[in-house]
Amino acid sequence: MAILPIVKVPEPVLRQKTKKIKKIDASIQKLIDDMIETMYDAPGVGLAATQVGVALRICVIHANDPDMRSAQDSSPGLIVLINPEIVKRSGTRLCTEGCLSLPNYRSDEVPRSEKVVVKGQNRDGRPVRYTAGGLFAEAIEHEVDHLNGILYFDYLDSIDKLTVYGPAEDGEAGEEEEVTAGH
Ligand code: NI
User: How far is the CA of 183 from the centre of ligand 1 (A)?
Assistant: First the structure.
């Protein structure tokens, strides 16, 4: 396994439409292992393949949330989604979100669904379906967006609405660091 460099905005791959995976071969398994290690190293609650420069429909998610209990997976904390598709969304809410591809920024006003149902395949190619709420649902919407070339700040009226929470580029300290889920 290897920790891969995380691609940052404005790398074009982050805006690329990803390709559906037809065959889950050894190279895909290696990519999945590397993505999991990279996500934990960051650390993040999710990571999409485009964020390691690969335009394929794979994401990994590890959202520590009670809603994860609904996951039908042998290792409920960590899931691998291949060819994910959100088949149902319900409710609306505003989430506080950050992205590993845009470090030190976040927004408290990212519109998301209360609940989502996602289907796809696990790394063995078996069909999986998750009903998610809370951070799990947020992570699913954020990662599936990545696979469609969408970034969370696309939902904001203006990029000026982003909050700096880490050291800013000019060396000035941003506002006090708070725990924000990065994906
Ligand atoms: Ni992200």
Answer: 4
Query: For this structure, is 143 an active site residue?
Result: yes
Instruction: Return the domain boundaries, the chain.
Output: 12-164
- Residues with CB in 5 Å of ion ligand 1: 99, 183
Which of 49-58, 92-101, 110-119, 152-161 has the least mean pLDDT? 152-161
What is the arithmetic mean of pLDDT over 11-30?
Answer: 97
Give the list of residues 6+ apart from residue 51 with CB closer than 8 angstroms, or none: 6, 7, 14, 100, 101, 146
Q: Specify the higher pLDDT residue, 74 or 166.
A: 166
Superfamily for domain range 12-164: Peptide deformylase (3.90.45.10)
Q: Distance, CA 131 to ligand 1 centroid (Å)?
A: 21
